[in-house]
Amino acid sequence: MKKLVVIRRCSQGVFFALFLFVSIFPFNRILSSAVFSSIDPLLVISLSIAEKAVQPFLIITLGMIFLVFLVGRFFCGWICPLGTTVDVAGMFAGGKRSAKNKTSRARYIKFFVLAAVFISAFSGGELVWFFDPLIILDRFVLFFNGRAKDVFAISVTLILFLSVFITIFLAPRFWCRNICPLGAFYAIVSKFSLLARRVKGACRNCGTCESVCRMGAIKPDADYRKEECVLCLDCIYDCPDHNTNFSWKSKKSFQKVQKSNKAGFPL
Questions:
Q1: How much is the pTM?
Q2: How far apart are CA 184 and CA 252, in angstroms?
C-alpha cells in the first residue's frame, strides 16, 4: 500500500474542501477566508510592494517560505487546490501519461511570468490577481456561485482556467511546471531545501521513475531537479527495486551511484 501517497491525497482532499468552503462561504464564523491567501507568498509580497504597505499575515507567509526551505515545494503537491484539480482532471486525460523529456525548456516560462508579476507590482500594478493559481480557482468558484462582479476579470480567469485544463493533454501538470508563477516562487526557494530525493544503492537506469514523474523532475541519470519536485512521492513506490527515498542525509551515496552509472558499471 502506498501509505505516503494516500496521506498526500488525503491532504489534497482536505485542503480542497476547505478552499471550496471559504470560497463559497467567505463570511462564515468557522474559518477565515484569508487562510489560503496567508500562505500565498506571491500574493502577499506582490501586493505589499504594489500598495507600499505590509499586508496582513506576512509572518505566516514567511513561515510558509521557511517550511518550503526545509522540505521543498510541498505546497504544490499537498495543498494547492488548483494543483489538486489538475491531478484529478489528469486521471481522465490518461492517468499517468509519460512526462519523459517533455517541455524541458517550457518550464522556464513560469519564471518569466513571475518576473512580470513583480515588475508589475513595482510599477504599482497588480498582475498577480490574474495569474495567481488560488485567485484563478477562487474566481472560477465565484462565477458558478453567482457572486462574480468584475466581468473583465472573470473573463480572463475563465480563459486561464480553461487553458489550465486544455494543457493537461499536452503533459501532466503542464500549468504547474511551466506557467504557474506561485510554483516558480516556490521552485526558487525549494532549490535550496534541506530535504532531498536519494537513490539507495545501485540504480539500473530502467527509467521508470523518470517516465511517471508528473512534473518531469527526474533526469535520465536518476538525479532530479529539486526545484521541480512537488513531493508527490510516487517515485518511492514506482521504483521496481525500491531504491528511492527522501531524507536529509548526505549526498555522498547518491553521488557514488551517479559515478557508477556514468562509468557504465553493471547495475
A1: 0.86
A2: 28
pLDDT value at position 49?
95
**Rounded mean pLDDT of the chain?**
84
| 221 alpha-carbon distance from chain centroid | 23
Report H helices in the chain.
3-24, 41-50, 58-71, 74, 81-92, 109-122, 128-131, 133-145, 151-166, 174-178, 181-190, 208-212, 234-238, 252-262
Cα–Cα distance, 230 to 232 (Å, whole number): 6
pLDDT in tens, 151-161: 777 788 788 88
The backbone region for 81, taken as left when phi is positive above 0, alpha when psi lies in -120 to 50, beta otherwise, is alpha
99-132: pLDDT as tens digits:
554 557 889 999 999 999 999 999 999 899 989 9
Report the C-alpha gap between 94 and 90 in whole angstroms: 6
Contacts of 130 (CB under 8 A, 6+ apart): 136, 153, 156, 157, 160
The CA distance from 245 to 42, in Å, is 30
**Between 184 and 2, residue with greater pLDDT:** 184
Helix (H, G, I), strand (E, B) or coil at 196: strand
Compute CA 179 distance to the chain's CA centroid, rounded to the nearest angstrom: 11
Q: What ranges make up the beta strands (E) of the chain?
A: 196-199, 244-247
Give me the residue label for grid cell 510554483.
Answer: 183
